[in-house]
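Co-fold these.
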Amino acid sequence: MNRTKAHLDLKGQPISLEGLDAEELQLVKDLAEHAEAHPDWNEFSNFWMARVGGFYAARGLSRQATQQTAAYRIGSDLASRLAIRAGLARPPDYRDELENLIHTRFRTRREFCEATGISEDMLSHVLAKRKHLAINTLVEALERIGYTLHIAPMAD
Amino acid sequence: MECSFFIPIRRDANLSDGDLHSAEVWEWLDDELYAHFEGRTIAPGLYEGFYQDPGTKQRVSDQSRQYIVAVKTSALDQLRSLLAQACVRFHQKCIYLSVADQVEFIEADDHEPNESPS
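Predicted complex below.
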């Protein structure tokens, strides 16, 4: 959490705390304190989802709406940080984001390759972390499907 | 109906690279379970296990998280479908699912996006 009323997630993206009411701010504070006091990944994973889900269910929010809240996203991010700290997960890099993009926007890798101009062989090496894409190649490929790169601050 | 399933903390070393999963993939699973099944419980600790890889015939050891989910009978296929997607996202050949103590192995519908490194 920083003083500009935003929580920076693992990808360096800010999750704004502006507009949260006092109870929501307390909820976010409780999550952060619980993560600090109980750093076990599984225990915190159970805690944050039940706490945030219960909080917004009591306010009549749907699960979809709850998933958009800052508290939900911060709970999820804090759990990820505990997993990484415990050596049980790794921080995401651009190759994970590429893979996620393929899963969510394309039916197959081949379809993604046809749309971006990246060869299937190269993509296979990149996703297996044996090679990197040159930055201009990545930028041009992403532009073809309506995406771009951002430089973001590193997570703590 | 009480369902439980195991997700190894590493990608399958034969199918993929044996690396730890990205934190983002675990977040994806949480999001899906919350959206479709109102949540889940994760059992304490990690479960040590081993099995014979049907492809290589080698003994494979792994450590997994156990997820427990309450699912209506009518939504069981939705859970199976989610775990088929999880096979791809987590780079697994199959996922062990127990439905009211009956064991199933869920495989990916389409392994193409998860193909072995060349």
